[in-house]
UniProtKB/TrEMBL annotation:
Disordered as annotated region, ranges: 1-52
Name of this protein: AbiEi antitoxin C-terminal domain-containing protein
Organism: Bifidobacterium aerophilum
């Protein structure tokens, strides 16, 4: 798999680091907010909308990001089905207007929620099994947005036969130390660095070489993930399936 990283435009006088990147770095590497649940598997917490709106600011401008609190009113349901709507054709109408993004024939999620990092976490809260950690393609969707993936990918010791909105739950049982995990709202998810590694470990025939490569490139560019970051994780876990293939890919990125 060949990954071409998109270039970023410098907005701070030419040093290649913009305000969004600095904000992202500070949030992901800063100390744990006081009063957090010490029993959580994650050393971080992005549950406060004031901290987690940087993804919205990146795409729509900082001024619109302040509307996050209004978008996520408690009465709002991020996931809707035909029973929540006045008629059987309402789902089609809302999807046609772009207000709703369909998951299957009877349900969908609000487009406004999908436009923010915190909003996407509320969508996943209603889909992901309890105590499971979102990973791989589903984690990439949370960090980047876009089209919802065809599976719900989680790290768990359990196996799930039931599907969720016509999507199977794909389970990975890989070692996940606390520094690889983070909490966004009520959703526990792998960090961008760990998500990149998990994507690189996927069989290319399973999810498509092109789409996985694109997600890896976008995550690395957006969250300043370096090949060395991924190699550090892979070198500590040499027996993960396809670890040698993923290691070769990241080593190739370091070559001139």
């Amino acid at each position: 798999m060949t990954i071409e990283l998109p270039t970023r435009n410098a907005t701070d006088g030419g040093n290649g680091t913009d305000d969004t990147a600095r904000t992202t770095s500070a949030i992901l590497t800063g100390p744990r907010p006081p009063g957090g649940d010490e029993t959580d598997a994650s050393p971080y917490d992005l549950g406060d909308p004031d901290l987690s709106n940087f993804a919205a600011a990146r795409r729509r401008g900082a001024s619109t990001a302040t509307g996050l609190a209004n978008t996520l009113r408690p009465a709002d349901k991020p996931l809707l089905n035909d029973r929540d709507l006045p008629g059987p054709l309402s789902l089609n109408s809302l999807a046609g207007y772009g207000t709703l993004r369909r998951l299957d024939n009877v349900s969908g999620y609000r487009a406004a929620h999908a436009d923010t990092l915190y909003g996407r976490s509320t969508i996943l809260t209603g889909m992901v099994p309890r105590n499971a950690t979102v990973c791989a393609t589903t984690a990439a969707w949370l960090w980047l947005g876009g089209t919802f993936p065809g599976t719900v990918d989680v790290i768990s010791r359990s196996h799930y036969r039931a599907s969720v909105h016509e999507r199977s739950i794909r389970v990975f049982n890989r070692k996940s130390p606390p520094e690889h995990l983070i909490r966004v709202g009520d959703t526990r998810v792998t960090t961008p660095v760990r998500t990149v590694c998990d994507l690189a470990l996927l069989p290319e025939t399973q999810d498509g070489n092109e789409s996985i490569g694109r997600m890896i490139a976008e995550l690395m560019a957006e969250y300043q993930v370096t090949p060395a970051d991924c190699l550090d994780i892979l070198n500590l876990n040499p027996f993960w399936p396809r670890a040698s293939t993923a290691r070769a890919m990241f080593e190739g990125m370091n070559e001139p």
